[in-house]
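Thought: the user wants the 3D structure for the chain below. I'll pass the sequence to the structure tool as-is, report back what it returns, then summarize two notable features.
Action: structure_tool
Action Input:
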Amino acid sequence: MKRRDLQRSGRPASDLMEEAVRLLRAAPLSAWLAYFVGTVPCMLGALYFLSDMSRSAYAADRLVQSSVAMGTVWLWMKCCQAVFTCRLRAELLLLDPPCWTPGRLARLAVAQIAIQPIGLIVRPLALILAIPYIWTATFFQNVTVLGDGEHGGVWALCRRAFAQCLRWPLQMHLAAGLLKVFGFFVWLNILIAMFTAPQLAKMFSGVETQFTQNPMGLINPTFFAASFAALYLCLDPLRKAVNVLRCFYGSSLRTGEDLEVQLKAVRRTAALAVGVILFLGTLAPMPARAAMREEPKVSSTELSQSLDDVLVRREYSWRAPRDLTALTEDKSWFGKLRKDFGAWVEGSMNQTKRWFARMMKKAADWLFPDKEYSARDSSGMMSWFSNVRLITIVLLIVAAIVLIVLVTRRRLPVTAAVAEPVAPLPDLNEEHVTADQLPEDGWLQLARELVQSGQLRLALRASYLASLAHLGHRDFIRLARYKSNHDYDRELRRRARANPELLTAFDRNLDAFERAWYGEHEVTPETLGDFSQNLERIRAC
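Observation:
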């Protein structure tokens, strides 16, 4: 996808989900520890709060204390989730783990405590009123991602979160839809696992419980609340990772952080390659040490044995007498296998010879059914008839061969006249179009057609490719897919430094093309006319 399309509509939601999964897999253990230290107590507290408030006889007396404790645990969860997303963002930007000073932790807590409780009121209202719920939920998720305490100010955090919330709405809704569909199937798996857990415990341990005696007793509000808590623990990290990526790509449009991350990845790969080369270089022995190594002494017995081993080699033993002991029968398993294989091959060849002899005998019997009678009277009528029959068969075979040759010769011109498909014209909207795909006249003809159809910007690019094709034909430049426009400019200056008029005309056309194609300046007929005049100067030089 082109960068301009990415800026306008963002990355596809499916690609964003895949990147979020890869980011979670690369997250360090400290990030997961921060997440679960804050989220698990909140989920357990929520389950206890719901169970106590719905079933306890003293619920009214403990309502205020339980609510304050639940709110405190919930705010603790939001702060820990902000630490988790900050660690994910550092992993995404290839930065060192953040340094958590008391001042930064205080700013993080103030930002989350000041904004997140509003979501407890606004989110339910967004479900029943005309407030867009996806925008509302994404806003508070962005507060978790951006409120890491690095930059102070609650209002500044709200503005940044709201700006990221309004960017790429289609991508935001598609990602939310994919998370909902994925979460539904995860929830079904959690229900099945929780429903079958007592039965599995009984199967492996033999312990009988009330849930194994009455499986339908599990179907109660606490059971479903526990399933939703488990679903939150499974799905919420993926949602946080998706919002981290959205905020990263959104801020990269202004700061260029994505390009910086790519450069860091290239530098890390290069450093790793250099380290491996240096490590392998240290494993090789040093020449000086190898030269200083003392050669071991060789005894006369070992020297004689080495000479005997060398003299029995093939290149030295070709004049030696044949060793008759080597012709004896090999008693090893390989010798037996070779002998059996040779006997099988010999038997197969004999059987093939017998089959061929039988076929030849049948053919002779069919051609000469009266050969016994003709042998007794070779000058009789039957011998003459057999010769005539043989001659007739030979003539029929020759006629068939001639007929086949004539038929194949007649069909050869028909099969040779095959129309070749015409190569399609290059799409000038694609970035990978090169000047060697059409000759110079072809680009100029395409430029004239585009001018007639009113597509002046594409006509300017076709004219520029025509100039590159002309320079490549005259060996001023070498056309290649990997070269940029400035590579062509430097190559032309090196090869045509004695022709300043050519260099001036090409520089003017290059400047006009880059301003129109990459800078998105409007292409007018006057611009195209000046470009054509410079192109004629290039062709005349």
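Final Answer: Structure generated. Residues 306 and 491 are 63 Å apart (CA to CA). The two ends are 40 Å apart (CA to CA).
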